[in-house]
Structure formats: C-alpha cells, structure tokens
Amino acid sequence: AQSVTQPDIHITVSEGASLELRCNYSYGATPYLFWYVQSPGQGLQLLLKYFSGDTLVQGIKGFEAEFKRSQSSFNLRKPSVHWSDAAEYFCAVGPTSNTGKLIFGQGTTLQVKP
Amino acid sequence: NAGVMQNPRHLVRRRGQEARLRCSPMKGHSHVYWYRQLPEEGLKFMVYLQKENIIDESGMPKERFSAEFPKEGPSILRIQQVVRGDSAAYFCASSPPEGRGNIQYFGAGTRLSVL
Q1: Residue among A32, A100, A105 minimizing CB distance to B48
Q2: What is the three-class DSSP state of A69?
Q3: How far, in Å, CA of A90 to CA of A39, rounded?
C-alpha cells in the first residue's frame, strides 16, 4: 500500500537551532517527493521537490531535503531555524507520470522557542 | 499570474443543506485536484479532474459528493445534504499540462463548518 509516515507529530526547537523533520514512504515505484509548509489558516506552499538526479535538493527559505532510496526516506533539514518557520510541514509522494494524486503524511507541527 | 483561487474561504451550512465549493486553477493549468483535511490530519485525496473529465475519483465518498470541471468556469465540489462529519478544510490544487512535472499548486482552501 502507498503511504507516507511522519513519525513526529510535534517538534519544538529553539530559534537558531538546527532542524530535521523525518519522512518515510512506502510506494510501489520510484516516486516524486515533496515537502509542503502550511501556516495557520493558509494553504500549502511548496518548499522543495525531488524528481531525479542529485539526492540532496535545495528549496526555498533555506530548507533542504535528502532522498535516501535504501531507507525510503526524504528528511527535511534546516541549519538554523527562524521564528517565522513555525508552521505545519507535510511530506508527500506522487507518481512519476507527471499527473496524479499526492499522498500526504499526517504532518509535523513545528514550534519555535525564542 | 494569480495563484489557485478558491471561494468562499469560509462556508457555514446547517445539516441537510448543500455546499458548493469553487476552484479556479492557475492560468495555463489544465489539471485540478481536490483534497480534504480533517482536523489534526493530513490532506486526503478526493478527486482529479481535467476539463470536462473525471480522471480519478477513488477518494470521493460514494454518496452526496460530486465534482466537475466544465469547459468554461471554475471547478466545483458539491456536497449534498451535509452532515457534521463533512466539516473540514477543502483544498484545491492545480498542475500544468503533462510533461512539465507533477507539481501541484494549492489554493488557500475553503473551511466548511456544518452546524
């Protein structure tokens, strides 16, 4: 079955600390992988995506993610968190057919302490 | 280039009424997706449409829910005889024509409250 697991429901980090949000997936074939961010009451904004090639991808707002095929993981990282990064983060997988539904994880809520 | 537009942003209905949610995709996008987000949960796929065609409705409840994307005008998600369990945020996403990567751009959502 196709699924995405984000093991951490809530994470709290201090401003300026590093961040890693975990994402594991189960998919029948090599998927496209995405991280989205959702601020309260807002829609989803695409942070970054992995289609192929270099397994370390850079995104907006200083985020990066690494695709590890052997671990079926696509963890999101940021070296230094800012208070404005407090939001909910969703990992998603989708088919490589250019179209088709995305499967989302349950999300990780990030809280940033001053 | 305007993003994906959804309206209304908030919708309140009483049990048994109908809810109509609208979505205008980004300019040049021909694929529309609807997702539902229940409280404290991630987004769940409902339906995928192209102009005048339903491509994948595997996530749609069997009754009361329907979706369309007519040749002209926005995509509509229609919920008949709403119940309390329909209360959720409904997000629409659009993506460009095939060949340009499956990047879905999301609207701000419609938050449906059923009293």
Answers
A1: A100
A2: helix
A3: 11
Query: Which residues in chain B have Cβ-Cβ distances shorter than 8 Å to A44?
Result: 43, 91, 93, 106
Task: State the average pLDDT over residues B49-57.
Answer: 92
What type of residue is B7?
A: N
> What is the per-residue pLDDT across A1-36, written as a single tens digit (0 to 9) for each?
789 999 999 999 999 999 999 999 998 777 889 999
| Phi, psi values for residue A84, rounded to 5° | -70, -5
Chain A residues with CB-CB distance to B48 below 8 A:
99-101
- Cα torsion angle, B100, B101, B102, B103, sign: negative
Contact A99 B48 (CB under 8 A): yes
How far off is chain B from A49, nearest CA to CA, in Å? 8
